[in-house]
Amino acid sequence: MGILKSAKPDQAALPEADRTTRSPRPSSGRRFGSVRLSTFLNGTELTLLAVVIAVAAAMSIWQPQQFATTSNLQNMAQQGAVLAIVAMGQMFPLLVGGFDISVGSLIGVSSVVGVEVMVHHGLVPGLIAGILSAGVLGLVNGFLIGRLELSPFIVTLGMLSFARGLALTISGGAPITGTPKSFEYFGAHEYGPIPGTVVVAAGVAILVALLLTVSRAGLYLYATGSNNRAARLAGVSVTRYTTLAYVISGLLAGVAGLVLSSRLASGQPTLGGGYELQSIAVAVIGGVAIGGGKGRLQGVLLGVVFLTMVTSGLNIGGVDTFVQQMVIGAIIVLAVLWDRVRIGSVDRLLRTVARRKPGGAVESKA
After folding, report:
1. What percentage of the chain exceeds 70 in pLDDT?
2. How many CA atoms lie less than 13 Å away from 126 in the CB half-sphere?
3. Which pLDDT does position 7 carry in this prediction?
4. pLDDT (tens digit, 9 = 90+) per residue, 275-306?
5. Residue 217 — very low, low, confident or very high, per pLDDT cuts 50/70/90?
6. Do residues 225 and 95 touch, judged by C-beta distance below 8 A?
7. pLDDT bracket for residue 38 (50, 70, 90)
8. What pLDDT, on a 0 to 100 scale, did the predictor assign at position 2?
9. Where are the alpha helices (H) located in the chain, listed in sequence order?
């Protein structure tokens, strides 16, 4: 618990953006009764919601007999829920100005460690071991990046390879079977029409929302990514909260690994491939800034819905797998480009405001 303790920073010393990140109060927005719509969705998220609706309509017209069916909606919910868990974890390194491309391999480690312990010692020890194994590797990432100030790309790329090799070594390169029957309630079971994966993802979303909006740790995570130097001067332990971000990413990758293992009723060392890039993509699509300091849970979840619908529509349409990979790659690049355009637009607006004289005139660049 030491990682959560820190001297309380002087709120007045934090940048304005950092002091208001945790509970923004929009001054304008469409109201429904006494509640502002912008309280729940900001401009980027409203735009993404419109895109999601448009994609859903287009897919329903393209494949009317298959896309908008109950079975396909359940399949999308199952797939999207796992991606949502990983993406919510990925959000934390992004918020502090980094990223974690090792999450796919951490899913594999969690899967084999959790099931191996589960087979010999029972369900609860297996769940704890699986989640903690990925969390410990996340702690290693956080220590190397936060304390030793190594590049997030180099560290998490190395961890990607190390963790995949570790998973293959533990399992001997083969699936681990013999999971207890009760393990299916962690992901494979359906609660009425609702898949178990969605229930787990909803629980994770509640915890993440509370951490980001209610706890002091959430404010410090935003401050760390928004202005690293100012956060240090204000008394925020930047090293501690950078490390915490990668620990959370690892823990949630561990949860995702166990959810996938529950659906497969086995531990798979190769689980998780592709989630590293998809989780970054949906977070950036949802408005999480590359470089840190900005992003909301609502946007990340909308990004998950968008990418899941696109992937499902392409599968139903019989689009070649290789073409699908090209489409996903293009979406990732466009998401990063949009992030840069969005940030550039804000910067230009701020520079214009800064050049304004008290009388309302704008200073000449000359």
Report:
1. 83
2. 26
3. 43
4. 998 999 899 989 898 888 889 999 999 999 99
5. very high
6. yes
7. low
8. 44
9. 16-20, 43-62, 70-95, 103-121, 123-142, 152-171, 196-213, 216-226, 228-233, 238-264, 275-285, 297-316, 321-355
Flag whether pLDDT at 349 surpasses 70.
no
DSSP state string for 126-194: HHHHHHHHHHHHHHHHHIIIIIS---HHHHHHHHHHHHHHHHHHHHTTS-B----GGGGGGTT-EETTE
The tens digit of pLDDT for each residue in 88-147 reads 999 999 999 999 999 999 999 999 999 999 999 999 999 999 999 999 999 999 999 999
- The number of CA neighbours under 13 Å toward the Cβ of 180 is 17
**Contact by Cβ (8 Å): 48, 275:** no
The span from the CA of 167 to the CA of 180, in Å, is 21
74-88 burial by CB neighbour count: b if 16+ within 10 A, else e?
bbbbbbbbbbbbbbb
| Gap between the terminal Cα atoms of the chain | 55
Measured distance CA(22)–CA(27) in Å, rounded: 16
- The secondary structure element, H or E, covering residue 36 is strand 35-36
> Domains in the chain, please, with CATH?
42-349 (1.10.3470)
Three-state DSSP class for 85?
A: helix
Give me the sign of the Cα torsion angle 74, 299, 187, 86: positive
Closest CA to 280 of 99, 140, 122, 145: 99
- Measure Cα distances from 11 to 7, 8, 16, 23, 219 in Å: 12, 8, 9, 14, 10
Query: Rounded to two decimals, what is the model's pTM?
Result: 0.83
pLDDT in tens, 316-338: 888 888 888 888 888 878 877 87
Instruction: Tell me how far CA of residue 36 lies from CA of 25, 42, 210, in angstroms.
Output: 10, 10, 20
User: Can you tell me whether residue 195 is helix, strand or coil?
Assistant: strand
| Token pair 């009317």 in the structure block, residue | 64
Q: Indicate the DSSP class of residue 291.
A: T
